[in-house]
Design a protein that fits this description.
A hairpin with a 7-residue loop joins strand 4 and strand 5. This protein has two domains: 285 residues, Alkaline Phosphatase, subunit A; 88 residues, Gyrase A, domain 2 (2-Layer Sandwich). It is globular, with a radius of gyration of 25 Å. 29% of the residues lie in helices and 18% in strands. It is α/β, with parallel strands linked by helices. The structure holds zinc ion. The site of zinc ion has 6 residues, from loops. Zinc ion binds next to loops.
Length: 428
């Protein structure tokens, strides 16, 4: 009995459509296109986690490659360490990780020795060091929205109420924000941006962030030359294409700033520096391990640890935190452990070598290494056309965003406008 019912529904819909059509035609209302409002450009900051600029040369990215060649493109230098959270925070605050509080993906603050910062931590205590661009914008009356960005779910400037199970008092978030959930698909993320921009002008965001993690995950799994990452690169290009289509449909001009936080280097288990062959296990506490290792001495074992670490090693160099070479701009924060060991690109530092021989990818190396380079594409009415910029630092993104949003520059930032000013139309 289903078929007749469906037919009846289809018929009644057809009748309704037919009945409505003449009524619409008979009104004097102008066609929809003619009443579409004249929209001011919005700014959309996009992060494609782990996207190396040379991925654009693989023939997999028609949309991103066109945006780059028609707009502004550069290879951007991440901050040290070339990890996800420190670099996303560097872009939006304009300060290097040593100065922005997020010194690593995982760390401990000495004033809260029992606690540990992880990538899931939203306690403003860890993030309050430097103000992100969306807070600067909100304070200036510019409405912001975040479809993910590390730190965007944090009530910046707020405080956890004691004994409240995590209730936050005060603080500023983007007016529209989303708690990070990797299961939210790239399509849902793009649709959320478009839905926000479909709103009436008085509640529509003017600055938005959008974050994709797929390319980084695939790069870790199979390395920067694996088939996994190539599939992810093609997928994210299609997502950007959907975003552009949605903007076009709305008649919404946009200044797109497309970045990544770091690149990706190929790793193998056989390329492991085994710390336990260098230092007695009972002399150190390991805070982080991988492309770099950060360590503290077990009290009383400082001399043993230093004697072992600070001599020359194959594939690795170690420093006391206050003797890290200046170009890394790293080592003054109290959140950085006592010692840093940095591996040669492609090598990793662990207590011992892992079983088997697996090829994968990782980042966290010397931020000047070509494998760690990050993506920068700018395209939109505010930007120059068909221009390539010399390499610049990712802390310069904050001053660029200030310029796009009409916010005053802050001379105290580590980031400067001058290296990226050439991206802007007015400077031509
Ligand atoms: Zn990342």
């Amino acid at each position: 009995m289903k078929t007749p019912l469906l037919s009846a529904l289809a018929l009644s819909t057809a009748v309704l459509a037919a009945a409505c059509a003449p009524a619409i035609e008979s009104t004097s209302a102008p066609p929809v296109a003619a009443v579409q409002e004249e929209r001011e450009p919005v700014t959309i900051l996009i992060s494609i986690d782990g996207f190396r600029p040379d991925y654009l040369d693989r023939g997999l990215t028609p949309t991103l490659t066109a945006l780059a060649s028609e707009g502004v493109a550069a290879s951007m230098r991440p901050s040290f360490p070339s990890k996800t959270f420190p670099n996303h925070w560097a872009e939006v605050t304009g300060y290097v990780p040593d100065h922005n509080g997020i010194v690593a993906n995982s760390f401990t603050d000495p004033s809260r020795a029992e606690d540990k910062f992880t990538m899931a931590t939203t306690d403003p205590f860890y993030w309050n060091g430097r103000e992100p661009i969306w807070v600067t914008a909100e304070k200036a009356g510019i409405r912001t929205a975040s479809m993910f960005w590390p730190g965007s779910a944090v009530a910046y400037g707020g405080e956890v109420v004691p004994n409240s199970y995590g209730k936050i008092e005060g603080g500023t978030r983007p007016q529209d924000w989303t708690a990070f959930d990797q299961a939210v698909s790239p399509t849902q993320r793009v649709n959320t941006i478009i839905d926000w921009l479909r709103r009436p002008a008085d509640i529509r965001p003017q600055f938005l962030t959008l974050y994709f993690d797929e390319v980084d995950t695939a790069g870790h799994d199979g390395g920067p030359n694996g088939s996994e990452v190539n599939a992810a690169i093609a997928n994210v290009d299609a997502d950007i294409s959907s975003l552009l289509a949605g903007l076009r449909e709305l008649g919404q001009p946009a200044n797109l700033v497309i970045t990544s936080d770091h690149g990706m280097a190929e790793i193998r288990n056989s390329r492991t520096v085994e710390l336990d062959r260098i230092v007695p296990r009972d002399a150190y506490q390991l805070v982080e391990a991988g492309p770099y290792a950060s360590l503290n001495a077990i009290p009383g074992r400082e001399a043993d640890l230093e004697a072992a670490l600070l001599r020359p090693h194959d594939r690795m160099e170690c420093w006391r935190k206050n003797e890290i070479p200046a170009r890394f701009e790293y080592g003054t924060s109290t959140r950085i452990p006592q010692y840093l060991c940095l591996a040669q690109v492609g090598w990793q530092i662990y207590p011992e070598r892992r079983e088997g021989e697996r090829v994968g990818g990782n980042h966290g190396y010397d931020n000047a290494a070509p494998e760690m380079a990050a993506l920068f594409i700018a395209n939109g009415p505010a930007f120059a056309q068909a221009k390539r910029l010399p390499v610049f630092d990712n802390v310069d993104i904050n001053p660029l965003l200030r310029e796009l949003l009409g916010l005053p520059q802050d001379e105290a930032l580590d980031g400067k406008l001058s290296p990226v000013a050439g991206a802007l139309m007015a400077s031509e």
